[in-house]
Amino acid sequence: ADNTSLSLNTKGKCGSIQSSSKKMSIQVNDPSGKMIKKFTPVDESEYELWNELTSDHPPYFCLTFSQVERPLLSKIIPALYKELIADDTILLQALLKSTSQKDSLSLMENLFKVFSYAGKVNEFLIITVILEFRKSNLLPQTILRGNSPLTSLFRVFYDKFGIQYYNTSLRKVIKYIDKCGDLSLKNPINAPERRCYSIFFKVIKHILKSNYSVPPEMKHIASILKSIIAVRFNSKKCTYNALNNFFYLRFFNSILCVPSKMEKNIQLQNDTVLSAFATMLSNVFNLVPMKDKYEPFNGWNQRLYRQTFNDIVDFVFSIADLDVVP
Fold this sequence. Notes:
By secondary structure, the chain is mostly helical. 54% of the residues lie in helices and 4% in strands. Helix 8 (216-233) packs antiparallel against helix 9.
C-alpha cells in the first residue's frame, strides 16, 4: 500500500554503527566516522539488532530485506518463520502473489517444507487454492489453464507422493499398453478397431478400480480443490474439470506420455504408442465421445454414454474423498 505520510529523513552511506552504553541511542556514521544520524529506537529490543550489524560484513539497516547478505541476523529467521506461519497468512499471501513463474516451483517446495514442519499443511493448501480461485476475471473455461503457484504445488505433490500410485497402478497400465504394440492410433482409420476396443476398455476398467492407490496426501489437496471451486462456481462441471485437470491431465496423462518422469530407467518396447493412447484417453476423460479423428471408433459411443462417462465422473470425484488423515 502507498504510505504517502512517509518521507525520507536522512540519506548517506553507512560506515559504522554505535550504540550508547546505557541503551539510550543509536548513532550511524559514514565511512569517515562522521555522524549521519542519531536516534532512539522505539523498541528497546532493537538495540541488540542494531549491535549485531557491527560485524565484518557491510552493515545494513535492520529488517531491510532488499539485501540478502549472509549471515542473516540471528533474530530475523525466527521472526520470518513466525510471521510466515501466522494465522493471518499475510506474508504467505504476499509471497504467493508476488513470485515469478521462474521461481514458483522452488518457492512451493520450500513453503511445503516449512508448513509441514509447522504442522500447518492444511492451512497452506487452503490459502494457495483460495488465491487461485478468487480472481475476479476467472472463467469456467480458464480454470487451471495456465501455470501458477497452485499448479507448482501440484507438481510438488506429484513428485513427493505420486510414486505410490505409479507403483501400484499406473505402471501396470504403461506396461500393458506398451506390450500391446503399435495400434496405429495416430491414424485411427488404419487401426484394428476390435483390438483397440478391447485394450481401451480394459485400461479404463483398471483406472476406475485404482482409487485405493491414490495416496491420502493427493486426496487431501483434491478435497480442498473440490470444496473451494464448488463454492466459487457452484457447478458440478467446473468442479469435475478442476479435479480432472489435477489428477488425470497433469499427473496421470503426463506420466503415461513420458514414464521416465517417474521411473528414469524404465524399459519399454513401443513407447511411441503411449502418447497416442494417452491422447485418446484424454478425450474420454474430458467426456468427449469418439468423433472427428476418432470417428472410426464411433461404435464405442453407446457404451461411453450408457456407462463409462458416468463411471469416470464418479472416479474423478472420488479422488477428493479423504478417508484417511495424511
